[in-house]
Amino acid sequence: MIILVAAIAVAASWGSPGVHAASYEWGIRYLNYGSCCLGDSLNGTKASIEVNYFNPLTNQCLSAQSYGVGFNNTDDLIVVDLLRCGSSTGIDGTCSESNNFVRAVEVLINGIYHCYEHGAASWGTNYTMDVLNEYQSLWWAHINGTAYENETFSTGTAEAIQEGIEDGQTTSNIFCSGWSAASVFAQTSAWQRFEINVSWKTVQSSRSQSGCFTLSGGPPGAFSIQH
Amino acid sequence: MTISRRMRYLIGITIVSVAVGAGVARGTGLWGSNRSGVAPSRYTDDLGHVTAVPPGSSAQEIVDFIMKRYDGSGIVSAKVGAPPSVPGQRAGIWLNFVIRSPGADERSAHAGWEADLVEGAVADALQENGLNGIAGSTIEGILPSGAIAPMGGGMGDVSPGQDFSQASDPQIKSLLEAGLERVHLTPVSIEVLHADEPAPAVIASTTDPAAAAKDASSTIRRLFGKDPPMYEGYYFEVRDQSGHPLFIQSTAFRSGAGSLWVDPTVQKDVSLLHG
């Protein structure tokens, strides 16, 4: 559902410039439950993420993330990310509120988005980021193995998991110019998906969405996402 | 809740000296790496505040003390609990909140914000008293049926001691009423909570939902500041003329927790971002 919405958003994004409103698009590699992996359940996604630079517009946020979304679109979402917003915006009022580059976790519970900021991030540093459902339907977000927030999905498996960059702008259309981003995924830790009660498995192939971004490389190897 | 001005001055001087020496910028760490090995976040450069609690208090006594003074009504209980048995937990205690939940939806946003505020004040007080900070929290809501529903919970990595406005409640209310008038919103209610320093909760109404949604980001900056924020947290809800909420944003800068809910009718208009 999220992917479909994203595709619609991207398709509608290159119209006349607008002011206000919020628009989102993605440069991602992703897996959909039932359409990949021989029908395996999708219970986690993990990869190293290195961001070399994010230079957002003043009203834009750029987030390099590991992301899991369930089948209940008001209640099943967990994202762990490296995030930088422009000087006039932020995420949920507390994440990257001063144009700073931060580590963060966001969850969606009962239709309410919650963001928790987890300190400064460093440019050019690899972080191993994952969202993981190890038992029952409880998903945890991790950065370099440390557990942060969790989220209970309505079903254990995700509808989709993804690695990539989310681009949010407080405009009614997405602007593809005036900003830049460079990141590398799966450089020091391969992109892997988790099947509950089984193991992590290296992702061999995936679907992609580019939005304003250029994607190159893996899986199964490292891949870059740039703008 | 404050300590003496002289003590604050001395602490502030010490902290500023450390900050200058470390060459840090706002939003990154002051205290060096924290219990997670990362430079903690901060939302203001002023780190001279001390959350006053009775000396020698245990963690639960600190929670109880802050619960008594925070002035809200949304939290039923707050208890120190054990960390979940999941690998990779940060050092520190867990807090388990139970809140009043009219519904498992945006109607629980206000009580959830109260829990975020209390958690932040407790986290500061614990660290300032030489105890472990907070590694995480759970928030459960009691629904009208008596059923319990998970409402989330979490804890950022945030520097303790952030100092925000200490204006009086009447001053804050007056400031916010004037601010609402300037942005063409009508006050429905303004309350000020005191988990530590003042944190206002503003509910306002509009005759033009689309315009209010489009202006949400700038309105919040005008009412509550941004970089740095004026208060240790805020709750901001805008309703239409029938009393139906259009959007809600809440923040708690001592816990690094923020929340956003947007009604589908203004989703295409709102100028606030989620992830």
Q: Could you characterize what this model shows?
A:
The complex is a heterodimer of chains A (227) and B (275). Chain A has one domain (2-13, 28-226): Jelly Rolls. The model of chain A is unreliable at 1-18 (pLDDT under 50). Chain A is mainly β and 227 residues long. Chain A has one helix at residues 2-11; strands at residues 23-32, 44-55, 60-69, 77-85, 101-109, 112-120, 126-135, 138-143, 146-152, 160-169, 180-185, 192-195, 199-202, 207-209, 214-217, 223-226. Chain A starts with a helix and ends with a strand. The radius of gyration of chain A is 16 Å and the shape is globular. In chain A, the strands form two sheets. In chain A, strands 2, 7, 8, 9, 11, 12, 13, 15 and 16 form a nine-stranded antiparallel β-sheet that branches. In chain A, strands 6-5-4-3-10-1-14 form a seven-stranded antiparallel β-sheet. With 275 residues, chain B is an alpha+beta fold. Chain B folds into two domains: 5-150, no CATH class; 169-266, 2-Layer Sandwich (GMP Synthetase, Chain A, domain 3), CATH 3.30.300. Chain B has six helices and nine strands. In chain B, helix 3 (109-128) links the parallel strand 2 and strand 3. The longest helix of chain B has 20 residues, at 109-128. The interface between A and B is large, with 59 and 66 residues. Strand 6 of chain A pairs antiparallel with strand 9 (257-262) of chain B, so a sheet runs across the interface.
